[in-house]
Each structure stands twice: as structure tokens, then as C-alpha cells.
Specification:
The complex is a heterotrimer of chains A (about 190), B (about 100) and C (about 1000). Chain A is an alpha+beta fold. Chain A is about 25% helix and about 35% strand. Chain A has 2 domains: about 90 residues, Gyrase A, domain 2 (2-Layer Sandwich), CATH 3.30.1360.120; about 80 residues, Heterotetrameric sarcosine oxidase (Alpha-Beta Plaits). Chain A has a 6-stranded antiparallel sheet, with helices on one face. A 5-stranded antiparallel sheet of chain A has the order 4-5-6-3-7. Chain B is α+β, with helices and mostly antiparallel strands. Chain B has 2 helices and 6 strands, in the order E-E-E-H-E-E-E-H. Chain C contains 23 helices and 50 strands. Classes of the chains: A alpha+beta (about 190), B alpha+beta (about 100), C alpha+beta (about 1000). Chains in contact: A-B, A-C, B-C. The interface between A and C is large, with 57 and 63 residues.
Chain lengths: ~190, ~100, ~1000
């Protein structure tokens, strides 16, 4: 990306990401991931799949799943639709990069700043999620991802490591409220 | 209530919003000679069965699929859940 | 056990240092029990200090301290004591704690003792032993069933002013602290294969069976010690006491990772599809909720199967003055003796109609308590030795106002005897605890074998019942049916579980001869002690024609108190049945509803209380706006800057006027990120929008923006906004802030349900972009300092859009659209740079005397310009009403276009949106006013329409208004009355064009 003169703020409106540790749980704001949504065009499914796999190096995940490989990650978000993630520093213009790869076989929309991402780690993270979401968190395996209600907001929960490492994607504008809810739940089980 | 999403399995109804009778899929032809009457009936006339009812639910806080839920409104038993797009196609809707 | 052992026990408890100068004696503390005598806890009741041990409840500790009088009844202020040892307690309600944490109507039987506990009796004045309102008891003839309806019927106006305040003062329970609750509450979600409700013998056997099979099990019990009646009985289980077997089983269950033990957790309701509500009292047993922790958690449990092992509740036999403090359930008497080593007295009588009552006799004797007599209503009862066993006798009266002193017994031979005693245990049999099984309107069925209701056959899907809750009243049957019930429930979901080797236990079903109440001509025999309903009240209701149990309940208030009639309902039905000559089954039951026991409203709210009631959405400029001292307004979940006060401005109008004048005079910036933005892509995207919008979109050129209106299918306007075409197959649609969610839902509905084969993909991008409106004659000059590319009128004409870069290379989007009527743009950058952009633009604006403005100035300018917004797009208005009928294209299919042609929506006198100004320049106008023709009376028949929006126009120096007026488009220049009866305001107004500013739109295109 060319240099420009605007400074970025994290979703929690800070210059640097906020990392909160409560008991054994760490809640880390992570603005260093670029996100784009990728949707397949009707009638172009085969071409779409082939082009997406060529970009990512792996097959797009099935409903309820997420895949990670190299720089790229993919999360199923709806029928025929995925979120792709990649490091922000190298992929700030992720939408253009993905669009170049899938051409008119897919629709691509920049989503990087539509979401706040919190990475939650800790051996008792499951106890915290029990207080936040109806997801059966104890049965969630690494590579599973789903969207459900947390703090009245539709949030994606991605299991990175069963029982101890999760990412939560929530509406960026509500980052402070979501963070507050996560911290309170962590305190309740600390 | 729990709605057994065809792609995602059992989900709490809190994730959904309700629209109404699944007959809303059968939108009339705007060029029919009696289109105004047909649209009137389509929009305002509903069966109110004490039993099985087909309803449109939107997985608003989930994957944003519209679903057709067949539900017994007396017992609350949910008998079938389908993707609304599949139902729409099976009822002849296309573009 | 002897009296010596008892006094030895007291000596062990009390050392001189304990007394602290006051006389404290646990006179009624027995030996044994499941209390921790190594630790002492101090508590107060009505200000007096007492001692207790860990393991005590408030009720057991009060009894151990010789306190029998614990409260006053609701209506008659009768002195009352505890009658049960569980959550069914109707009488012993107290106010727990003090200050903001004061909790009224708390059952002493379920209050777990902690050091420093404070409790106060309620519904008495000035003191529990002397209560002035006890006069109600003497006036009881006036307070019989239905007294509210009869006495306080007329005149109607007296109800609110006179009767209700008097009743509320005289009758009632505890009172609220009226302070904010200082504690936090959680909600949570749990999943399991099998939920076991209740941890008595059947629940423990069920959990053991399921747990050992590897199934995911939740075992919940409202008590703080698991085991249920096993902890209250002396019956052996295998080679152990029941309590020891329970403890060993709990230990094994606790070691299983697949089993979750939930103590202090009440299953409050059975909901659809295997969902159960559970209230966990996380910190109620502690003096103060620890920091960061919650007082209670309301769990939503998703179960594949549920096994209800909720046990049974003992029922009383009604007789005259059966509410004296010291009269309690026989099972509760021995529970206090066995589990809590406490007794209400040292000379105790037992009144029973069944064998189970005789267990109390044996257990109390074993604890060294003297048995005054056993009154057994069955002439053929098995004879007891070593005590006076009066078979075929009944208790006909009880003496002792503040505490039982004697009972009057009519013997089999008809003699009357007075027997001194300080406590009486009563057993009328056991009612299976069927509450949860009825939450989906299943009706229980009568079982003659145990003379009680048992669960019916149409239970909630996935629920089965075991143990005493289904009518198996022996320990062996409870264990067996619990284990079998768990195995069967799991087999139902394809999971096999082996039955454990269950220990031997007693298996003698208690024999019972039903007796509901002792016949009497005089006096009052209580059925529902909390609501003060007597046998006579039930009879009276019947005499007055109340034949349905539902009517009986509401007329007498039987079972309508905080205990929901757990000890009284079946007895009430039996009395009713006796009146009608019907069976109890024919009489039927009322409906059981959640919650099983009271739940604080705060627990239902959980974390969503006070400032956390709902999440807040903050705009990208929020931090900057806060630094500027902006005043914020809630718009849905959004917090938007309403205006930006400057030093010296004392009213909001000064700030807003300045922002409007500066914008129209130079340039103003406004954060418009909150408007919904929906990305629409695909080869059919243009055709899709053509059908979503009433006006055509198919031919919109790339790089162009068009204003559009969306209709509902009924022809009413749903929303308005713009769509920008970024590429042949790519649009960005904007919605109003309020309708962003609804419009997106509607578009997905159209895409998936109506035209499933269209190649269209949708996603919200509202949050991805920080978007600012820049408006005013200097807007271009300002933006040219920000945008890297040429944005001259030629490069970016009115209603054009482009992808550009700003501030030396950051990707951005620019749209030349206007809401204010000025030369205006909207500029968008990725949200993380929104804060940087507002700072850069606010700096750049200084050169021009520009401002950043809030939603108030935004509103003023759109009213001045005559743009419709939420007040006009109110769900009842059509395109024709809004003056946009021409936009509804009849040559294409679009949602709502067909029904917008309905005759009724197209009458000559249809409402039209027009402008209004006060005839007298200084006059006030008010939104919500209705228009009345000059000279006509202000009534509904003469209604000509209504004012929707009003603002002070600093540009024009008077108020300006928008409103809907019948045939308004053709009434310009007419003078009308704008009448607002709510504000008692009337203004003479003139009908004018809605476009107060720049009606030709020259500024927009400059």
C-alpha cells in the first residue's frame, strides 16, 4: 500500500491493541488481520471453487467450519459465502487481491474493518463462553466456526484449539460493549 | 424453541426472526389481468390452522438463511426444516 | 439420646466467650446431624443475636435456638412458624439482609446460614409477638373468600384512593429496599444428553447410571447438600446410612468429567424442545457477593432427555387452628431432627393418617425427644409400643397463640382430651412433585393407591419421571426407577447404559387412609396458610357457585401465593371434591406454570441491566466527538453526536443554529457512518435492484448514484436511500439508520424466497467504512485538500461516485449526494482511519470557518430542504403521499408497485407532503399537530392531516414544518389551524412548498 498520512485506531479506539488478562483468560484485540467476504456466482461454481483453491492452497470449508493454511484462513459464513483472512500488514488490500484471483466467478467485499476480532485464550475459556453464547462450546473442535448471539450481537466464534483458544468476531462499532461483556464473563469464572 | 437448521443443526430460536406464512413464497405474477386481486389475497388472506403450519424464519444472527419451518402450532413440535431457496425452486420460482 | 447428652451438646457449643454478655442458648439443638459443629456462625433475627453452624438453614437455626414464631400471615396477621423443611414453605417468609441487598419474602427453609446473616420478620407492626394488624384476625368474618370483590366493589372511584391503600397496608408480605440492586447476575447456556432434576435417591441413581455410561449429564438440585430425603431419613441404604451413601455417590459423580453437579440450582421450568430454565444461587450463601462474581446465574439448559426426580411433598391435614407455630409436617420434623439436629420442642405429638408419619415418632424418640402422643386417624393402624398411640383419633383444635401449648384430641370413643405439647407433626400423605411435568399443560392423573396425583401420560417431549415424583414412595423403588429411567432415556437417544448394582433399601410402601380435613362446625382450619384460605372459604366458594377449580383458585386465592400452593392445592381440591360429591380426579387441578419457585427479575435481566441494557454502537468519530464535548443521542443502538457545544453557548439551539448557518454559509461535516450500507453484486444485481426499488435502476450508469424508494408489498414506503453503481455487477445501497437491519432482511428474503436463481450476492458493509458527509458551498474546496484526485464539477458531477485515494494514497470512496440541499459529498475510508479523517477534515475546515455538525443540525437542514425522513416514512405513507408517485414505475415488476395502485390509496383527497410556516413569524409550531380548516371545529371529523416534522430555521428566522395534508399539493397559500391538544397549542399556518431552501436545487449542482 502507498504511504498516506492517516493514523489507524483499533476497534477499541486505541493506537495499540488492547490485551486484557483476567485470571487464566486472556482477551486480545487483534486488528492485524485483513478480512474479505467471498461469495460464489450462480452458475460459476466449478470455476469459482478452482480459482479460490488456487489462491488459498486448500479447499473452502463446509458449513460450520473454518480452515487455516499458510497466510490464509477461510470461514464458512453462509450458503455459498466465506470470509477469507490474511495478515493485514501484507494484505491490507485483501478485497482487490481476492477479486483478482476469482475474477467474475465470485463476488468480493472488503470486511476488514467491519469487525472487531478478540482472540480468547485460557484453559477455562469454555466456562467463559458458557456465559456468553448458546453454542455448545465444549463440543466445538478446532476448525469449527459458527455465528451466534453474544451480548445481543451476531458474532462468529472460531475454535482454534478445542478448550483453550478461540476467536470472536463481532460488529466493530460495538467493540467496547463486546469487550466489556467478555471481560465480565471472564471475571465471573476467574 | 430449537430449530434444526438444515446446514448447521439445532439452533436456539433466539438467533432467528419470524416473518409469517410460507405461502409468501408464492408471489403472484404482476402482469396477470387480476394482479391487484391476486396480490391482495396473497398479502392479506391466511389460513390459521390449529396444527401444522409452514412458516418463514430468518437465521438473522446466524448464516442469514431463510428457512421454511413446518411446525405444529398446538404442540410446538417442529416437523421439518428446509432452506427457503430450495422450497422456492420446488414451487417453480426462479428469477 | 438423653437429656444429658443434649445438655452436653449445648456445653460443647457454648463456651463463656461465646455469650458476649447476652444469653444465647441453642436449647433445641439435638445430637448428630449434618452440621459442622467445629465452626460457629452468628446471625440475627429481628435484631436479636443467635448462633448457628455451617450446614444450618435459617429455619433449622431458629428452631435450634427455640424460636418457633417466624412470621405473620398475609391477610389475618396470624402468628406463624415454619411448617416444612424445603422450598415448598408457605409460612416462614422473612426479609433477608439489610440495605440495598434486602430481599423480601425469602423462605427461611432454604436460606443457607452464613456468618453475619441478618433476617427480619415481615408483615407485623410494631413487633412479631405484638402486631397491631392482628385485629384483622378478629374481623375475619369480613375477610372471607372473595372479600375484595364483595367489600370493595362500589363506588369505583374509592378503589384506587381508599380501598387499595388500606388493603396494601393491612395485608401483604415483605417490602422492597427501593434501592438499586448492587449485585450482578449472569445468564448461561449448558448442553447435555440427560438432565436429572433432583438429587434424591432416584436422581443420584439416575446420574450414576448415566454418568458411568459416559453420557453428558447434568444433575441439578435446589439444596446445597445433595441427597434429598436420604439426608433427612435414618433409613439404611446397603450397609450405610442413606446420607453416607448419598455422599459417596456424589463423590463418585464429582470425579466424572462428563457429569456436571449443580447444587443450589432450581430447575424453574420446562420449555419447548428439551430446554429447561435453571436458577443457580451462586453467592446467596455468602455474606456478600465476591467482587467480579455474580449473585445468581440463570441457565438455559439444552437437554436431549430429562428425567424428573423431584420427589414428593408432604401434605397437611386441615383442622381447627392448625396454623399455630410449632405445628409442622411430620416429615419436616424428622428432617430437622436428623439432618439439622434441631427440634421445635421437647414434647412432641404426631398426627397422621399413614405409616410414614410413624417414622417421625421413631426418629424423634431415637433423638431423645419425648413423644406426647401419636394421634392416628386410622382405627386399624399398626399399634406402636412405648408411646401413647391413639388410633381412630383426630386433632380437633390447637392452643397457644404465639406457639403451640396443647392440642385437643377427639378419641375413637368420642372423648375429648387435651394433650400438652410444644410441637405437632402432621402427615396427610405425600404428593408427588408433578409441577415440572405439567408445564406443557399435561394434567396429572389420580392414583388411588397413594391417594395422590401422579404425572399424566402427555409429558413434555423428552421428559420422563422416576422415584417419588411418579409415586414410588420407597427408597428401593426410587433407586431402581431412577437407574432404569436414566438407562431408558439414554437408550432413546441411542446411548446404552448398564444398570448399576444398586444397594438394598427399604421397600415398604406406606399404607394410608385418606383424611384431608377434620370436620368442624366452628373455627378455622387452614388449607393455604400463606394466603389465609380455610376449609370454610373453599366451602363458601362452592356455595356461591364457583364449580371450576380455576374459579375456586381465583375467588379464594388458594395456591396463588409465593409458594404457589405446593402444600395446599391438593387439599383444597379434596375439600372441593367432598362438596361436589365428585372424585378428586373429576374435580381436576389448576395449571402449573413456571417458575417452580420465585426468580428475581434481576436474574431474567442478567447482565443486560442499567448502562449495559443493550450494547452501544460507536461511530468512527466517537472518540474525537467526545474530546470536543459533543452531546450524544441514542439512535437505536448507535450513539450519535447530537450537537457540539462551543464555549459560551448555553442552550442547544445556539449550538444547532451555529452549525446550520456555518454549513449553509461555508461547510459542515457530519458522521453518517450509521446509515446502512449493503453491498450488492452479481450479474443480476441491476435487475435485482430494479425489483427492490419502485423506481428504475437497471440503466443507472457506472459511476453514478441514484435516489430510490423501496415499497413494502402493500404499497407503503418502507425506506429510502441511494444506490451507487461501482461496476456493471456491483452496487452499494444505502438505507436509513433505523431501517438498516430490516432492509437487509427484506433483500435477503427477496433473493432467497422470491427469486432464488438470480445471480445476486449481498453483504452488509455498514461497519467497514467510516463515512462522512461534507456539505456547503465550500465543501469541494475542503475536500480537495483531502482527496488526491480531481473532484471538480466536471470530474465528479452531481450524483456521481468514484473510487479515489485520500491523504496521500489511502483507498476511499466518494459520492456526490446531498441530504442538506447544499453542494455535498459523502467520503468513506476504511473504518480504522475514520478517526484520522475526521481530525484531518476538521483541521482543514478551520480555514473556511466550517464546522462539524450533529444530528440536530442534520435534521434542521433536511426539514428546510423538504426531505422526508423517519417521521414521514412512518409505515403508513405511500409514494403518492410523499409526492413521489411519479417514481413508481409501472412498466416493471417491483415489490409493492401492484398494490400501490389500489383505489383506496389513490383518492383525490389523499394526503400530500407539503410545507408549513406560521402566519405570524414568531409563532411556535409543533409536530403532531393536526390541521383543521379555518373556522371549522377542531374534531376528528374535520381532520385535514397532521404535522410530522418541525424545526427552527435559523436561515429563515421562523419555524418550518413538514406535514401531510389532504390534497395538499393543490392547497398552497391556504391558511389552516394547526391544533395540538396535547400541548394545548394552536397556530395559524400557511401551506407552502416543502422546499424552504433552494427550491430549484441550484446549490446541489454547483
Amino acid at each position: 500500500m502507498p504511504e498516506h498520512r492517516l493514523k489507524a485506531l483499533t476497534p477499541l479506539a486505541q493506537a495499540r491493541p488492547v490485551i486484557t488478562t483476567v485470571g487464566r483468560i486472556t482477551i486480545a484485540e487483534n486488528p492485524d488481520v485483513a478480512l474479505a467476504s467471498l461469495a460464489q456466482r450462480r452458475g460459476r461454481e466449478a470455476d469459482f471453487t478452482q480459482r479460490a483453491e488456487a489462491l488459498l492452497g486448500f479447499a473452502l470449508p463446509a458449513p460450520g467450519h473454518a480452515v487455516q493454511g499458510g497466510d490464509w484462513g477461510a470461514i464458512w459464513t453462509g450458503p455459498g459465502q466465506w470470509f477469507l483472512e490474511a495478515p493485514f500488514a501484507s494484505h491490507e488490500d485483501i478485497a482487490a487481491m481476492v477479486k483478482n484471483a476469482v475474477t467474475d466467478a465470485g463476488s468480493v467485499t472488503e470486511q476488514t474493518d467491519a469487525w472487531v476480532r478478540f482472540d480468547v485464550t485460557g484453559r477455562n475459556a469454555t466456562e467463559m463462553f458458557e456465559r456468553l453464547s448458546a453454542i455448545d462450546i465444549h463440543r466445538m473442535q478446532a476448525g469449527q466456526a459458527t455465528r451466534s448471539l453474544i451480548e445481543h450481537l451476531g458474532c462468529y466464534v472460531i475454535c482454534r484449539e478445542a478448550g483453550s483458544r478461540y476467536s470472536v468476531l463481532g460488529m466493530r462499532s460495538a467493540a467496547a460493549s463486546l469487550h466489556h461483556a467478555l471481560v465480565q464473563a471472564a471475571e465471573a469464572v476467574a | 424453541m430449537i430449530i434444526n437448521h438444515p446446514l448447521l443443526g439445532p439452533r436456539d430460536s433466539q438467533e432467528f426472526t419470524y416473518l409469517g406464512d410460507a405461502s409468501l413464497i408464492d408471489r403472484p405474477d404482476w402482469q396477470a389481468p387480476d394482479a391487484v386481486d391476486q396480490f391482495h389475497d396473497y398479502l392479506y388472506l391466511r389460513d390459521n390452522p390449529a396444527g401444522e403450519h409452514r412458516e418463514l424464519w430468518f437465521h438473522e444472527q446466524g448464516d442469514r438463511s431463510w428457512l421454511v419451518v413446518t411446525r405444529n402450532v398446538v404442540t410446538h413440535e417442529i416437523l421439518n426444516v428446509e432452506l427457503a431457496s430450495d422450497v422456492a425452486r420446488s414451487r417453480g420460482r426462479s428469477k | 439420646m438423653t437429656a444429658n447428652q443434649m445438655s452436653g451438646e449445648m456445653n460443647a457449643v457454648f463456651t463463656p466467650s461465646d455469650s458476649q454478655g447476652s444469653q444465647k442458648t441453642t436449647v433445641n439443638r439435638l445430637a448428630g446431624g449434618q452440621i459442622d459443629r467445629s465452626r460457629r456462625l452468628r446471625f440475627t433475627f429481628d435484631g436479636k443475636g443467635y448462633l448457628a453452624h455451617p450446614g444450618d438453614t435459617l429455619a433449622s437455626a431458629l428452631l435450634a435456638n427455640g424460636v418457633r414464631l417466624m412470621g405473620r400471615s398475609f391477610k389475618y396477621h396470624r402468628p406463624r412458624g415454619v411448617i416444612s423443611s424445603g422450598s415448598e414453605e408457605p409460612n416462614a417468609l422473612v426479609e433477608l439482609r439489610s440495605g440495598a441487598r434486602r430481599e423480601p419474602n425469602t423462605r427461611a427453609t432454604v436460606i443457607e446460614m452464613f456468618d453475619g446473616l441478618e433476617a427480619t420478620s415481615q408483615n407485623r407492626w410494631p413487633s412479631l409477638s405484638f402486631d397491631a394488624m392482628g385485629v384483622n384476625d378478629l374481623l375475619s368474618p369480613f375477610f372471607a373468600a372473595g372479600f375484595y370483590y364483595k367489600t370493595f366493589m362500589w363506588p369505583k372511584a374509592f378503589w384506587e384512593k381508599l380501598y387499595e391503600p388500606i388493603i396494601r397496608r393491612a395485608a401483604g408480605l415483605g417490602s422492597l429496599s427501593m434501592e438499586a440492586d448492587p449485585d450482578a447476575y449472569d445468564k448461561g447456556f449448558l448442553h447435555c444428553d440427560l438432565l436429572v432434576v433432583g438429587a434424591g435417591p432416584s436422581g443420584l441413581a439416575a446420574a450414576l447410571t448415566a454418568g458411568r455410561s459416559g453420557a453428558r449429564v447434568i444433575l441439578a438440585d435446589e439444596d446445597f447438600r445433595l441427597g434429598g430425603r436420604l439426608n433427612a431419613e435414618t433409613l439404611a441404604v446397603g450397609d450405610q446410612s442413606g446420607a453416607d451413601w448419598a455422599a459417596a455417590t456424589v463423590a463418585e459423580l464429582a470425579s466424572m468429567p462428563n457429569v456436571r453437579l449443580m447444587t443450589r440450582t432450581t430447575i424453574i421450568g420446562a420449555f419447548d424442545h428439551g430446554i429447561y430454565g435453571a436458577l443457580e444461587r451462586v453467592s446467596d450463601h455468602l455474606a456478600v457477593t465476591p467482587k467480579g462474581k455474580v449473585r445468581q446465574t440463570l441457565w438455559r439448559i439444552y437437554s436431549k432427555r430429562a428425567l424428573v426426580c423431584a420427589g414428593a411433598i408432604e401434605r397437611p391435614i386441615a383442622f381447627v387452628n392448625n396454623d399455630r407455630p410449632g405445628i409442622m409436617m411430620a416429615g419436616a420434623l424428622r428432617a430437622y431432627a436428623n439432618r439439622w439436629a434441631a427440634t421445635p420442642g421437647h414434647r412432641v405429638a404426631v398426627f397422621t393418617n399413614n405409616d410414614d408419619g410413624l417414622r417421625t415418632v421413631a426418629d424423634l424418640r431415637a433423638k431423645g425427644v419425648q413423644i406426647a402422643a401419636v394421634i392416628d386417624s386410622r382405627p386399624d393402624a399398626p399399634a406402636l409400643s412405648g408411646v401413647e398411640h391413639l388410633r381412630g383419633a383426630m386433632v380437633i383444635d390447637a392452643k397457644g397463640r404465639l406457639g403451640l401449648s396443647s392440642i385437643v384430641v377427639r378419641t375413637a370413643s368420642g372423648d375429648t382430651r387435651t394433650i400438652p405439647c410444644d410441637a405437632l407433626g402432621v402427615s396427610g400423605g405425600w404428593n408427588p412433585n408433578v409441577g415440572l411435568t405439567c408445564h406443557h399443560r399435561s394434567r396429572p392423573v389420580w392414583n388411588d393407591g397413594i391417594a395422590a396425583f401422579v404425572p399424566g401420560n402427555d409429558l413434555p417431549a423428552g421428559m420422563t419421571v422416576a422415584g417419588a415424583a411418579v409415586g414410588h414412595l420407597t427408597t428401593a423403588a426410587a433407586l431402581r426407577t431412577g437407574a432404569e429411567g436414566a438407562a431408558a432415556a439414554l437408550a432413546d437417544i441411542g446411548h446404552s447404559a448398564a444398570l448399576p448394582d444398586l444397594p438394598r433399601a427399604e421397600d415398604d410402601a406406606p399404607r394410608l387412609t385418606p383424611l384431608w380435613y377434620v370436620p368442624h362446625k366452628k373455627g378455622r382450619a387452614w388449607v393455604d396458610p400463606q394466603n389465609d384460605v380455610t376449609v370454610k372459604d373453599v366451602k363458601l366458594a362452592h356455595q356461591e357457585g364457583y364449580r371450576s377449580v380455576e374459579h375456586l383458585k381465583r375467588y379464594t386465592t388458594l395456591g396463588m401465593a409465593t409458594d404457589q400452593g405446593k402444600t395446599s392445592n391438593v387439599t383444597g381440591l379434596a375439600v372441593m371434591a367432598a362438596m361436589t360429591g365428585q372424585t378428586i380426579q373429576q374435580t381436576g387441578t389448576t395449571i402449573y406454570r413456571p417458575p417452580y419457585t420465585p426468580v428475581p427479575i434481576a436474574a431474567f435481566a442478567g447482565r443486560s441491566a442499567k448502562e449495559d441494557f443493550r450494547p452501544k454502537r460507536l461511530t468512527p468519530s466517537h472518540k474525537w466527538a467526545t474530546e470536543q464535548g459533543a452531546v450524544f443521542v441514542e439512535v437505536g443502538m448507535w450513539m450519535r453526536a447530537q450537537w457540539f457545544p462551543k464555549p459560551g453557548e448555553t442552550t442547544w439551539r445556539q449550538s444547532v443554529d451555529r452549525e446550520v448557518l456555518a454549513t449553509r454559509g461555508s461547510v459542515g461535516i457530519c458522521d453518517v457512518t450509521t446509515l446502512g450500507k449493503i453491498d450488492v453484486q452479481g450479474t443480476d444485481a441491476a435487475e435485482f435492484l430494479n425489483r427492490i426499488y419502485a423506481n428504475p435502476f437497471a440503466k443507472l450508469g457506472v459511476g453514478k448514484v441514484r435516489y430510490g424508494i423501496m415499497l413494502r408489498e402493500d404499497g407503503m414506503v418502507m425506506d429510502d436511500g441511494t444506490a451507487a453503481r461501482l461496476a456493471e455487477d456491483h452496487f452499494v445501497v444505502t438505507t436509513t439508520t433505523a431501517n438498516a437491519v430490516g432492509v437487509y432482511r427484506h433483500m435477503e428474503y427477496c433473493r432467497q424466497c422470491l427469486w432464488p436463481d438470480m445471480d445476486v450476492q449481498l453483504i452488509s458493509t455498514t461497519e467497514a467504512w467510516a463515512q462522512f458527509s461534507v456539505a456547503g458551498p465550500n465543501a469541494r474546496k475542503l475536500l480537495q485538500k483531502i482527496v488526491d484526485q480531481d473532484i471538480s464539477n466536471e470530474a465528479l458531477p452531481y450524483m456521481g461516485c468514484a473510487e479515489v485515494t485520500v491523504m496521500g494514497g489511502l483507498r476511499a470512496r466518494i459520492f456526490r449526494i446531498s441530504f442538506s440541499g447544499e453542494l455535498a459529498y459523502e467520503i468513506a475510508v476504511p473504518t480504522r482511519y475514520g478517526d484520522g479523517l475526521i481530525r484531518a477534515m476538521a483541521d482543514a475546515a478551520k480555514e473556511f470557518g466550517g464546522v462539524v455538525y450533529g444530528t440536530e443540525a442534520l435534521g434542521v437542514m433536511r426539514i428546510e430542504k423538504g426531505h422526508a425522513a423517519g417521521n414521514e416514512l412512518n409505515g403508513t405513507t405511500t409514494a403518492l403521499n410523499l409526492g413521489m408517485a411519479g417514481m413508481v414505475n409501472k412498466k416493471k415488476d417491483a415489490i409493492g408497485s401492484t398494490l400501490s395502485e389500489r383505489e383506496g390509496l389513490n383518492q383525490p383527497d389523499a394526503l400530500n407532503l407539503v410545507g408549513f410556516r406560521p402566519v405570524s413569524k414568531d409563532a411556535l409550531m409543533s409536530a403532531g399537530s393536526h390541521f383543521i380548516n379555518a373556522g371549522a371545529e377542531a374534531n376528528a371529523a374535520n381532520d385535514q392531516g397532521y404535522m410530522t416534522s418541525v424545526a427552527w430555521s435559523p436561515n429563515l428566522g421562523h419555524y418550518v414544518g413538514l406535514g401531510f395534508l389532504k390534497n395538499g399539493a393543490n392547497r398552497k397559500g391556504e391558511r389552516l389551524r394547526a391544533v395540538c391538544p396535547v400541548k394545548d397549542l394552536e397556530t395559524e399556518v400557511e401551506v407552502v412548498s416543502a422546499h424552504f431552501i433552494d427550491p430549484e436545487g441550484e446549490r446541489l449542482r454547483a
